[in-house]
């Protein structure tokens, strides 16, 4: 039986990243479907405060963010690799990927915001403090130009006839890019056709990306996943970099939170602090003792008293 449990909902492009990773590696996994907005009581019971999507659970270890999910899947299942162009470069694309996402998000907002139910709009306004929901209409032409500029980079990379962005096999670079083209095709099909219609290598690559799939998924009830955490012991070993730039120490109480959107903060005792990862140990009634892992890149660590 697989011990991989993905907490997510399919409409999220960041979930699509995790699905692509599971697809490249051809893995079996179980799926706890979460709501698209709070209340997300089961997920928050697991993480201790993080509400974002996706989250990967393996027993009493919880991996937050698609960036860390990529690292962890690669560690556990090295072949086939997610990093055909090398882990540093492919993971560095996460910030480019976020910029591509934002250009698509602004198009979706300009076209679809009036149809969004008020509570969903309020939630997303809270979630994305860097996006001005009041000016997305005025900024529509610029957003279109930015989305197309990102897509044109993909066309340029594929221009030599390669099948995937880093060569003959799919990897994280493709996974950092494809979900936003997928989102555009699904959420604003006509506009996507206008912006992407003259990019033939991109269209052929999209067809190849569809064949990557998602591995094999089986639904799981949230209560069962929480019980699995309760019955397990974290495998995380203490690993704090003696050269940690913040001078963090093992066992210190800290708060960890994303530095871009308000996906929620987690308090706990520091277990791992490296340039790649931060992890904290915490206790919760529903889960017992668990370790919550985050990427270091893009997450703040603030000591708490
Ligand atoms: N850097 C994060 C970003 C995740 C993210 O922003 N996910 C969105 C969904 S597209 C989210 O969490 N939305 C709020 C929610 O699901 O409650 C990652 O790569 O996992």
Can you walk me through this structure?
The protein is an alpha/beta fold and 305 residues long. It is built from ten helices and eleven strands. Strands 1, 2, 3, 4, 5, 6, 7, 8, 9, 10 and 11 form an eleven-stranded mixed beta sheet that branches. The longest helix is centred in the N-terminal third of the chain and has 26 residues, at 87-112. It is globular. It starts with a strand and ends with a strand. Glutathione (GSH) is lined by residues 12-14, 36-37, 51-54, 65-67, 127, 261, 263.
Percent strand equals 15-25%
What's the end-to-end separation, in Å?
41 Å
Number of domains: 2
Bound molecules: glutathione
CATH topology of the largest domain: Glutaredoxin
Biggest sheet architecture: 11 strands, mixed
CATH class of the largest domain: Alpha Beta
- Beta strands, count: 11
Structure, briefly:
The chain has helices at 13-25, 41-47, 66-76, 87-112, 118-127, 140-158, 172-187, 189-196, 200-210, 222-230, and strands at 5-8, 28-33, 55-58, 61-64, 216-219, 239-240, 253-258, 266-273, 277-284, 288-295, 299-303.
SSE layout and pairings?
Blueprint: E1 5-8, H1 13-25, E2 28-33, H2 41-47, E3 55-58, E4 61-64, H3 66-76, H4 87-112, H5 118-127, H6 140-158, H7 172-187, H8 189-196, H9 200-210, E5 216-219, H10 222-230, E6 239-240, E7 253-258, E8 266-273, E9 277-284, E10 288-295, E11 299-303
Parallel strand pairs: 1-2, 2-5, 4-10, 6-8
Antiparallel strand pairs: 1-3, 3-4, 7-8, 7-11, 8-9, 9-10
Helix pairs in contact: 1-3, 1-7, 2-10, 4-6, 4-7, 6-9, 7-8
